[in-house]
Amino acid sequence: MAKYLLLKHYRGAPAAVNDVPMDQWTPEEVSAHMRYMEEFAARLETTGELVDNQALSAEGTFVRFDGPGRPPVTDGPFAETKDLIAGWMAIDVDSYERALELAGELSAAPGAGGQPIHEWLELRPFYTAAPTITE
Amino acid sequence: MADEALLRTLTPTVIAVLVRRGADFAAAEDAVQEALIEAVRGWPRDRPRDPHGWLITVAWRKFLDAARADAARRQREDLVVADPAPEPGAAVDDTLQLYFLCAHPSLSPASAVALTLRAVGGLSTRQIAQAYLVPEATMAQRISRAKRAVSGVRFDQPGDLATVLRVLYLVFNEGYSGPVDLAAEAIRLTRQVAAATKDEEAAGLLALMLLHHARRPARTRPDGSLVPLTEQDRGRWDTGLIAEGVDVLQAALARDRLGEFQAQAAIAALHADARTAGETDWVQIVEWYDELVRLTGGSPVARLNRAVAVGQADGPRAGLAALADLDPALPRHTAAAAYLHEQAGDPVRAARLYAEAARAASNLAERDHLTRQAARLNAHLRG
Fold it and tell me: Best exposed site among A109, B8, B256, B312 by fewest CB in 10 Å?
């Protein structure tokens, strides 16, 4: 019973093995990729392991407080060099090994030429509830 | 008894009655959940005089409806459902059989927890999903998969009590605090198992839960932060729960079949016995940790906790020596080292270790506690 976040990056992760930008794929390859992702999430729901599954727009802005009575300062859209998160899948699994297995499977989503992308996904554990018995 | 509490008490016995009448476990469990929903809707207006009988009748009807629909779907006319009278007096054994089924060794811990809370605890899927912070659809799937996984298990075959106790321990120890009080629920269910089995370890687990539950009012500050055992206001411990826990434990220990839950409860009882942290009998606690290490075949977690107790009984240097034998990668190893180094008069090293332990903590309350310890020492060091 441990929750993990699988983070997918638009930019900032090490380069994938099958590293062709999506707009260079055939429409069928794009559809096959989307179908793979949907089926993966649907399967995790049936195994009772899916917590959340979201994709993020590439458009984004940094925002910060600029002092009382002043409007917040914004910066963006993000510069090309910045790390950019594309989306996430949150899972609730029995072990770290299971989380690794699922991340590996998700990274094998098909890309250009119908071949697995081998993209790097970031795997991050959630904090758990605090146990009562610790001594 | 409030309706919800009553319904939840009746849930396992009604499932068992349906199974005795020939329903398979998964279908019986579904039928009883539907009957529970009907009861929650209807009882506030029109409460039956015999709630147990009402639930059996309605659940059985739900089961027959579902079985007929199922049979019709499969174009089979040959489904015959027997309707023998329920066997009186079998209720306690039946409930225990349900525990064995729900905590069957073929299930993962998460599945066993979910199934136990639903079929024995009488909680709804939504409540269980809220308690474990997953979507309701995910929890529903987890439960129905678990039911399928145990569908071939015969209802009357002997079960594994040890896995039942482990599942109840998990419910008590590793739940979020949400709308459902999982600790109280775990205690209710463990009480039932201990009464039905007369097993020493079931009693030991019940005592362990009661003794820790007694500290709950003192364990967190109003802002949710953790109060370590040594700093807790012991006047806020629940003396009724402590007395019950000690009684249950003593009765179990007297039967001379020691196990790890009894040893853990004995340690908790020694803490409960000390009016102030300074009066804690650390020498006896170390002796119980020696037992626990032996009973668990040298469990690293037990040895780590023993090292901390040695630090209290024989001084921080002895504690650090005991810690030196253990893998530094163990959870809480760095936190224990930080504490012992502070006690040994090395605040610089302690502060660094507290900060390191905070980064490795697996839950927020612990991370925040360790961060505050590091901050406290660093502020002091800056003068």
Answer: B256
- Chain A residues in contact with B173 by the CB 8 A cut-off are 131-133
> Which are the contacts of A124, defined by CB distance < 8 A and separation ≥ 6?
A4, A5, A7
| Both tokens assigned to B266 | 């004995």
**pLDDT, mean of residues B182-192:** 96
Instruction: Give residue-wise pLDDT tens across range B127-185.
Output: 999 999 999 999 999 999 999 999 888 887 788 999 999 999 999 998 777 788 999 99
pLDDT of amino acid B213? 97
Token representation of residue B69:
């629909």
Chain A residue with the nearest C-alpha to that of B205: A133
Distance (Å) from the C-alpha of residue A38 to the closest C-alpha of chain B? 15
Number of domain units in chain A: 1
Query: Closest approach of chain A CAs to the CA of B132, in angstroms?
Result: 9
User: Which amino acid type is present at position A53?
Assistant: N
Residue B66, pLDDT above cutoff 60:
yes
Pairwise CA distance, residues A61 & A78, whole Å: 6
Q: Is residue A100 part of a domain?
A: yes
Strand partners, B226: B220
Count: domains in chain B: 1
Range of the domain at B22: 16-73
CATH number of the domain that A73 lies in?
3.30.70.1060
The DSSP 8-state label assigned to residue B226 in this structure reads: B
Query: Looking at the domain assignment, is residue A110 inside a domain?
Result: yes
Share of chain B above pLDDT 90, in %: 81
Question: Which residue does chain A place closest to B108, by CA atoms?
Answer: A94
